[in-house]
Task: inverse folding
């Protein structure tokens, strides 16, 4: 791999990578069973050059911000490279947000340029708020011939001949603004420097190296901190190959493992659980004799991998299972949310190590990671090289808030000095997560201190952000909380949101109100919906400026009501 | 082959969803939130999409499911491609 200490920016490192391994394949893009794109590092460079030149001609300057709203595909990475090459700041936005949310974040980030896939651009142009679009130049990929682009350019035609000029950046310059959440009330744009990414990449690849010929299957959205690092920066600075799928249908994902002989893949717990379900169903179909044999072989595998993974041996013991994953899989990387230890154990027992870690966008990608020596499904591993992790104000069980200090931590939240000062205190990032260190130095997470949930799909949801959808509800007042914030649990997983309602005096809770809540709830993306409501019989405590005192209200509800008071909707 | 009516498409979507996820057909109505009624996650919803593609002999990109959570809208997306 490249020696990242020598580079001042992601652009400089990526530029060298493209020259270092010209004949290695860096990208494969497939749509279902059809391979659409296969690029060597040299091809990638040749595709990016005319785009870089065109950006120069469009007066793209060092420090200019450019947003990408796309599903995982080759043009995502080519565009990101061109932005870094031209000295820009990348704003990767979650393509699963709504058009209105995209417009809000584009405005908040002050992105001058927007690179967007056609179907997403179509949704943005159809939003009533389209007139508020702040980006000056929009490039649209894969627009059908004759499509009305509302002033945007076709990405495929946005190119110029000639040699673009590389724009150098320094380590302390901003590389990316990544939104960890907050599309509604308070956007949380994490400002991450080139130093953050280069340091994080160096420490991750020290434990889990990539190499030419290795293939990484990119399933998590590339705008997500994990895939951006392990599905783009990491493989590229090591000469490895990234495989993109244009569909996430489980059957095509399974085929891709075999067709492209995948080495690593990152997954969110929901996908891992889906794979587990599929395998268990297959095992259940076996004849009693074959099932007996399988169970014995799994037993032997468990014995030989007790101390550390021995993937070669496991492949010989359980060849059918490993063939289903392509035969070259080294590990599944899981993150983004809490993973059930029994799921991790299920895969490990089959000889497929699952690397479980802990990270947050504010800390670039990962803070801790399991080194598998030995495998510990009950922890999120040890701090990565260069990361210091402390437990603040531990109780008698050693449990307290997890705080992180490292060069990978963000510099601040964009345009929010107040929130930045609350979140980074004396150089320590306060994560809001509760945890403890066990005797071998592994971190165990036990709950959350903050009012938020993380879905099994890896999405952070802040209740304040979804309240807007209930605005105007015919009640006296309402508020949304994470159920685990009201009634803290010393466990993670199964998190849900609850809508707390204070009715008007003499108001009855009628079916009409219930129907309206259900209808409005459905207006939210499925992973953002509230699970139920709770009727509260006192006025909400408020500040002098009439803001709800959420902490005080939560404590009161937590004391006077129980989870059983929640009515499911 | 003549294009079926939207009512027919909707009925076929409901019948297929019921059989795919093994729930009684009469429990499903067009405006149901299928994530909730069927108790499925987004990956299982993609599985259903594949089943529907085979049935209607069309290709539905994943993004057609984005923001869709009720059977009626899903049937409309299918109808537009028949």
Result:
């Amino acid at each position: 791999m490249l020696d990242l200490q020598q580079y001042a920016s992601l652009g400089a490192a990526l530029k060298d990578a493209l020259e270092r391994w010209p004949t290695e394949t860096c990208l494969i893009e497939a749509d279902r069973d059809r391979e659409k794109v296969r690029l060597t590092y040299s091809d990638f460079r040749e595709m990016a050059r005319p785009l870089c030149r065109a950006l120069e001609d469009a007066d793209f300057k060092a420090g200019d911000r450019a947003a990408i709203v796309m599903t995982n595909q080759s043009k995502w990475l080519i565009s990101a490279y061109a932005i870094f090459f031209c000295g820009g700041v990348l704003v990767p936005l979650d393509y699963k947000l709504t058009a209105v949310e995209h417009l809000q974040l584009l405005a908040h980030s002050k992105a001058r340029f927007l690179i967007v896939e056609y179907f997403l651009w179509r949704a943005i142009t159809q939003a009533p708020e389209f007139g508020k679009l702040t980006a000056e130049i929009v490039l649209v990929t894969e627009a059908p011939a004759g499509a009305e682009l509302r002033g945007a350019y076709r990405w495929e035609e946005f190119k110029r001949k000639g040699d673009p000029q590389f724009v150098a950046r320094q380590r302390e310059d901003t590389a990316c603004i990544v939104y960890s959440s907050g599309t509604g009330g308070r956007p949380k744009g994490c400002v991450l420097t080139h130093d953050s990414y280069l340091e994080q990449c160096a420490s991750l690849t020290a434990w889990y190296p990539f190499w030419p010929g290795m293939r990484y299957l990119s399933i998590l959205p590339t705008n997500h901190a994990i895939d951006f690092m392990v599905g783009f920066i990491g493989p590229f600075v090591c000469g490895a190959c990234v495989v993109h799928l244009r569909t996430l249908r489980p059957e095509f994902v399974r085929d891709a493992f075999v067709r492209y002989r995948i080495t690593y893949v990152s997954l969110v717990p929901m996908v891992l659980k889906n794979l587990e379900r599929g395998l268990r169903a297959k095992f259940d179909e076996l004849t009693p004799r074959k099932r007996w044999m399988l169970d014995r072989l799994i037993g032997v595998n468990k014995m030989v991998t007790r101390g550390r993974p021995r993937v070669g041996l496991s492949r010989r013991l359980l060849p059918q299972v490993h063939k289903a994953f392509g035969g070259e899989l080294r590990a599944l990387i899981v993150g983004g949310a809490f993973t059930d230890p029994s799921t991790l154990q299920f895969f490990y027992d089959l000889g497929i190590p699952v690397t479980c870690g802990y990270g947050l966008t504010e800390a670039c990608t990962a803070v801790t990671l399991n080194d598998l020596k030995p495998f510990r499904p009950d922890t999120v591993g040890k701090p990565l090289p260069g990361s210091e992790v402390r437990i603040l104000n531990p109780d008698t069980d050693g449990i307290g808030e997890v705080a992180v200090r490292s060069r990978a931590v963000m510099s601040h939240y964009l345009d929010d000095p107040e929130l930045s000062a609350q979140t980074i205190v004396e150089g320590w990032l306060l994560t809001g997560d509760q945890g403890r260190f066990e005797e071998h130095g592994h971190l165990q997470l036990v709950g959350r201190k903050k009012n938020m949930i993380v879905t099994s799909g890896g999405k952070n949801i802040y209740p304040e952000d979804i309240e807007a959808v209930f605005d105007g509800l015919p009640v006296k007042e309402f508020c949304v909380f994470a159920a685990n914030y009201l009634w803290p649990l010393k466990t993670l997983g199964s998190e849900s949101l609850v809508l707390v309602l204070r009715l008007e005096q003499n108001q009855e809770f009628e079916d009409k109100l219930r129907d309206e809540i259900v209808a409005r709830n459905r207006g939210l993306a499925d992973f953002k919906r509230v699970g139920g409501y709770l009727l509260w019989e006192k006025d909400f405590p408020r500040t002098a400026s009439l803001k709800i005192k959420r902490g005080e209200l939560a404590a009161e509800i937590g004391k006077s009501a129980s989870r059983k008071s929640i009515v499911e909707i | 082959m003549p294009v079926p009516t939207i009512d027919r498409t909707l009925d076929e979507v409901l019948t297929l969803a019921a059989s795919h996820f093994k729930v009684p057909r009469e429990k499903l109505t067009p405006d149901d939130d299928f994530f909730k009624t069927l108790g499925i996650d987004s990956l299982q919803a993609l599985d259903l999409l594949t089943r529907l593609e085979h049935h209607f002999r069309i290709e539905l990109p994943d993004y057609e499911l984005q923001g869709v959570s009720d059977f009626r809208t899903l049937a409309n997306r299918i109808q537009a491609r028949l």
